Amino acid sequence: MTRVLYRCPTPTNVLCPCGAVERRLRKLNLEHATRRVPYGRSSRPEIEELTRQRRVPVLVDGEEVIHDSKRIREYLEWNYAKRESPPAGAEPNR
C-alpha cells in the first residue's frame, strides 16, 4: 500500500478537516493506512519533513505529497472519482 493519511488524533470523522479527507477516501473505496499524529504541532517532525510545515491532514499517495484538506479532496476527485464515472454526454451501456 502506498497511500498514507496523516491526521490528528480526533476519534471521529465528523469534527475536523482530517475526517473529511478520511470520509472521501472511504467513499472512493481507496485503500490507505491512517497514521494519527499528536495534537501538538511541535511533536510532528514527520509532517514537517514531508511538507515543511506541521499541519494535518497530509496525504502521501505514492510519490505525491498533498497537504490541506481541500487540496487533498480535490486531488482525490481529480485522480480517482472521475475514473469511475462515465464521460459527460455518454450513453449508458445496454
Estimate the mean pLDDT confidence: 88
Task: From the alpha carbons, calculate the radius of gyration and give it in angstroms.
Answer: 15 Å
Domain count: 1
Number of strands: 4
Going by CATH, the homologous superfamily would be Glutaredoxin
Helix content: 25-40%
Q: Helical stretch count?
A: 3
Determine the CATH topology. Answer: Glutaredoxin
Helix/strand order, N-terminal first = EHEHEEH
Shape type: globular
Alpha-carbon distance between the termini?
36 Å
**Percent in strands:** 15-25%
Adjacency order of strands in the biggest sheet: 2-1-3-4
**Unreliable stretches covering 5 or more consecutive residues:** none
CATH first level: which class?
Alpha Beta
**Architecture, CATH level 2?**
3-Layer(aba) Sandwich
Major sheet description:
4 strands, mixed
Descriptive account of the structure:
The chain has helices at 17-27, 45-51, 69-84; strands spanning 3-7, 33-36, 58-61, 64-67. By secondary structure, the chain is α+β, with helices and mostly antiparallel strands. It has a single domain, classed as Glutaredoxin (3-Layer(aba) Sandwich). It has a 4-stranded mixed β-sheet with strand order 2-1-3-4, with helices on both faces. Helix 1 packs parallel to helix 3. The relative contact order is 0.20.
Topology:
Elements: E1 3-7, H1 17-27, E2 33-36, H2 45-51, E3 58-61, E4 64-67, H3 69-84
Parallel strand pairs: 1-2
Antiparallel strand pairs: 1-3, 3-4
